[in-house]
Amino acid sequence: MSDPRQQTEPQQEPPGTLGAMHRRPDHGEDSYRGAGRLAGKKAVITGGDSGIGRAVAIAFAREGADVLISYLSEHEDARETGKLVEDEGRQAVLVAGDVGDPEVCRTVVDRAVEEFGRIDVLVNNAAYQMTHETIEEVTDEEWQHTFDVNITAMFRLVQAALPHVGEKASIINTSSINYDSPRPTLLPYATTKGAIANFTAGLAQMLGERGIRVNGVAPGPIWTPLIPSTMPPEAVEKFGKNTPLGRPGEPKEVAPAYVLLASDEASYISGAIIPVTGGKPIL
Fold this sequence. Notes:
The chain is of the alpha/beta class. The chain has a single domain (37-276), classed as NAD(P)-binding Rossmann-like Domain (Rossmann fold, 3-Layer(aba) Sandwich), CATH 3.40.50. Helix content is 36%, strand content 13%. It is built from eight helices and seven strands. It has helices at residues 51-62, 75-86, 102-116, 140-161, 187-207, 226-230, 233-238, 255-262; strands at residues 42-46, 66-71, 92-96, 121-124, 170-174, 213-219, 273-276. α1 (51-62) links the parallel β1 and β2 (66-71). The longest helix is centred in the middle third of the chain and has 22 residues, at 140-161. The relative contact order is 0.16. This is NAD(P)-dependent oxidoreductase. Residues 1-34 are annotated as: Disordered. InterPro entries: NAD(P)-bd_dom_sf (IPR036291), Sc_DH/Rdtase_CS (IPR020904), SDR_fam (IPR002347). Belongs to the short-chain dehydrogenases/reductases (SDR) family.
């Protein structure tokens, strides 16, 4: 059998699926060990079918949380993630739909409240990106869609969820190293990630008096289905090799940051952005 690490990764249609990948990401399926840090918590994770979202769902379940997994249309990947959550004796709720649609945002929150009664942790992780060499290649529709999915959905989800969260709740937004070091070929995506960092900082101040913490995680190059579905083959081949650690990260290497921020151990952490970048600095 050939080594998947030596095969050229097939180009996929966005947002990509795990089943089409030669080298599957490591979400911590066989390695993450929980310690009850999120016992009894109810969590919502957008983009939870694969990649960072799946790794966070696994980690949250093994730490004792029930999880709603919001995803676009990758039904098989989402079902696999749901089973991994249920294998830990936790409840998994799957909700399909594009969070760029305001009605889907409301549905995600409504289902969480219907199934769980409340929301303790909201992880805004869903994202869209495409690679372009020139700004002329970016259509008005793509620019608007990128903003709708990456940042406007966060606003809508937070606004809908607030009546159902209490003190000690945690909101965690996925930003990116691109908020500090924007990659020009990912201009719409990188621009939204800068907006997410500012949204996180402002919202933390706005919600502090309610006892609600708001933080972000800024991943560097993490190996997920989004990469071979949104980047040209030559970029995929070099992906992550320019980091000080010399490789892309695995989703399981990002999940512990979310666990910390979701846990009561982070009770005085709000307005922070945690970089997980393989050594590339964020200033």
